[in-house]
Amino acid sequence: MGRTLQNTMINLGLQNACDEAVYQLGLDMEELEEIEEDAGLGNGGLGRLAACFLDSMATLGLAAYGYGIRYEYGIFNQKIRDGWQVEEADDWLRHGNPWEKARPEYMLPVHFYGRVEHSASGAKWIDTQVVLALPYDTPVPGYMNNTVNTMRLWSARAPNDFNLRDFNVGDYIQAVLDRNLAENISRVLYPNDNFFEGKELRLKQEYFVVAATLQDIIRRFKASKFGSTDSVRTVFDSFPDQVAIQLNDTHPAMAIPELMRIFVDIEKLPWDKAWDITKRTFAYTNHTVLPEALERWPVDLVEKLLPRHLQIIYEINQRHLDHIASLFPNDVDRLRRMSLIEEGDTKRINMAHLCIVGSHAVNGVAKIHSEIVKTQVFEDFAELEPEKFQNKTNGITPRRWLLLCNPGLAELIAEKIGEDYVRDLSQLTKLHKFVDDDLFIREVAKVKQENKVKFALYLEKEYKVKINPSSMFDVHVKRIHEYKRQLMNCLHIITMYNRIRRDPAKLFVPRTVIIGGKAAPGYHMAKMIIKLINAVAQVVNNDPVVGSKLKVIFLENYRVSLAEKVIPATDLSEQISTAGTEASGTGNMKFMLNGALTIGTMDGANVEMAEEAGEENLFIFGMRVEDVTELDRKGYNAQLYYDRLPELKQAVDQIKSGFFSPKDPNLFNDVVNMLFHHDR
User: Fold this and answer.
1) How do residues 70-95 score in pLDDT, each as one tens digit?
2) Among the CATH numbers 3.60.120.10, 3.40.50.2000, 3.30.300.20, 3.30.413.10, which is that of 468-678?
3) How many CA atoms, within 13 angstroms, populate the side-chain half-sphere of residue 496?
4) What gap in Å lies between CA 68 and CA 74, rounded to an integer?
5) Residue (of 361, 342, 356, 109) closest to 240 by Cα position
6) Which residues does this entry mark as bearing N6-(pyridoxal phosphate)lysine (predicted)?
7) What is the reported pLDDT for 549?
8) Most buried among 403, 529, 592, 638, by the most CB within 10 A?
C-alpha cells in the first residue's frame, strides 16, 4: 500500500489546505510525509495491483472490500553491504499505525487440525485448534467523491484458554508462552515473488485469511435484507447476486472448499446447490505462467491441517473427472492432465485447477498472457469451457502514480485538457492536438528536468555519487528475477563501458543507469546478480576515463515510496523480460504515464502499450513469443552467440576472469555457468 497521508489528502481534496496549515505552524509537509513508514504487505506487482484496485473501486463508488493479513513484519528492508543484499526485519508498526482501527467486536474463530466425524446428519470437523482473527480496518477514500471504502486486515490472536483447556498441562507459564505459536500466523510476509514455497505456516496464512473473510462476508449477507430466513435457515439463492469474490492468484484458493464446507456442513445445503452458488460467487485471476510459481500443496500437509477440506477437494475432483470422462470416454491422459490431484512421489493439489473448476470466470492480466493461459497452460480447461476465459489487462491508479508523485506534470496536463482525466485516462488523447505546440513540449521537458534534478540531489545525499542531471536516466526497477533479465541490462552496461574505454573521444550520450529491486532471501542467483551489478558499478563509477559519461547505481530498498521518487525522473524505462514470461507488468505503465520512453520486449502489457502509442514510439526489440517457442524447440546454444559476438565475449570474459572481482576471480562462476548451460 505504501504511505497513506498524501494519498488521503489528495483524494479528500485537502492537500493545499493542509500544506498551508502545516507551513503556518513552521513545518514542511514534505518532511512530515517522509516520516511515515511504507505499508509493505505484499511482494511486488501482485500486491501493488490490489492496492491500485482499492483506490480505483472507491473512486468508481463500488461497494468493495479488500481483505488480507495484517503482517507484523512486511517485506524485508534491503540493505546493501559490500555489494551484497542483506535483509532486515520491517518493523513497520514500531511507532503505531494511525490509519488502522482495531475491531475486536468482529473477531472470528478459525479452526486448524482436528479430525472429521461422519454421521447421518453429515460431516463434523472436531477436536480442532482455534485461532482468533482480529480485524483491523483502514479507510480507502475515493477521489473527490465522498466515498470511503474499507480494507480489512486480519491479525491472529490466541484464545484466552489456549493450551489451558488441556487439563494435563501443568505448566501454566509455558502455556501462556505458547500463545505465540497461534499468533505467529500473522507475524511475517513470505518474501517470494513468482515462486512457490510449500511451507506449513504459509498454508496456515492462506487458510486464515480465507476462513475469517468468508465468515465476515456471510455475517454481512445474513444481516442484510437479502439473507432472508424461512423459519430457521438462511436462503442463499441470492448470494452470488449480492456477493462477488475475486481470487487474487491462487493464494486464497482454499476459499472454494471453505465456502462449500460452510454451505454443506453448517448450513446443510445439498451439494449440487452449494456448488452452483459457490461457482457463481468466485472468479479467479491468474497472475503468472512460470511453473515454479504455481501452487501445488502436498496432500499429506492439507490432510493434517485441514482434513475436511481435503475430503471436499476430493469430492469436487471426483465430480469434475466424472464429467470429463462422460465427454471424453477412454481419454485417461486427459483425466490425468485435468485432475486437481497430481500423482507422483508426493501427491499434490494443483490450486490453479481448483480455482478454474470452482470459478465462473478466469482471467489473465494482459492480452498476450490471457492467450498463453488459454492455448498453453490451461488449454484442456479452455477447450472445455471457452466462455469462462477472459482478459482483463492490468492498470494503475492515476491518483498515486501521476497526481501524487508528479504534480508538475499533472498540473501541465490539467491546464491543457481540464481535470477530468484524473478519473478517466482515455481523455489523455486530447493531448494529441498539442504535439506541435512548442511551448507545451518545452514545458513538459522542463518538468522532467526538474524531477531529474530533484532525484539527482536525493541520490547524491543517499549514495554520495555525483550525478549529471542532464544525462539519460535509464531505470530498471522491479523484483530481481532471472526472467526479468537484470543480468542482460548488466551485460549492456559492461558493453557501454568497454565502448567508452575503447574510444574515449567518440560521442556518447551520457547515461545514469539505475537498477533497483529486492531478491527473495533464498534466491541465490538473484542475489548474485545484485552483487554483480554493484561490482560493475564499483569499476565503472571510479574509472577516470569514463568520468561522468556513465554512472551505475543500485537503488537500495526499492519500495512504493521510492518508486514515487524515481519514476517521475526517468527518461528510459526498462521492460525487458523474455517474451511470454511477464504476465503483465505495471511499472511499465507508471513510467509511460510519467513521460518516460520505453525500451522493451513484446511481453505482457508492453504489447498493448505499443499498440496504443504506436510501435514507432517505443524501442521494441528481441524475440517474440513465437521466436522463443521456436528456439526452445531447436535448442538454445549460448556458446554460438559468445563465439559470434566479440563485444559479448569481452563482457562475459571480464565477468569470468574476475575483472569486476579482483579479490575473488571465481566469484561469478555460477552466473557465467548459468548463462552458458541453463539460461531459461
Assistant:
1) 999 999 999 999 999 999 999 999 99
2) 3.40.50.2000
3) 24
4) 12
5) 361
6) 590
7) 97
8) 529
Residue 495 is predicted with a pLDDT of 98
The three cell numbers locating residue 158: 490466541
Enumerate the domain spans of the chain.
Answer: 37-190, 191-359, 468-678
What would the grid cell of residue 465 be? Answer: 555519487
**Mean pLDDT value across residues 334-356:** 98
Return the residue matching grid coordinates 485469511: 209
**191-359 and 468-678 share one CATH topology?**
yes
- The sign of the dihedral angle between the CA atoms of 395, 400, 403, 407 is negative
pLDDT per position as a tens digit, 179-192: 999 999 999 999 99
Averaged pLDDT for residues 339-367:
98
Q: Tell me the helix, strand and coil percentages in the chain, rounded to 5.
A: 50, 15, 35
Enter the pTM of the model: 0.97
Decide: 503 and 512 in contact? Cβ < 8 Å. Answer: no
For the sheet with 597-600, list strands across it. 550-555, 511-516, 472-477, 572-575, 597-600, 619-620
Mean pLDDT score, 354-373: 98
Could you write out the DSSP letters of every residue in 494-517?
HHHHHHHHH-TTS----EEEEEE-
| Active-site annotation, residues | 287, 478-479, 484, 586, 590
CA dihedral of 637, 643, 644, 647, whole degrees rounded to 10: 120
Is the domain spanning 191-359 CATH 3.40.50.2000? The answer is yes
pLDDT value at 166 more than 80: no
Residues in the chain: 680
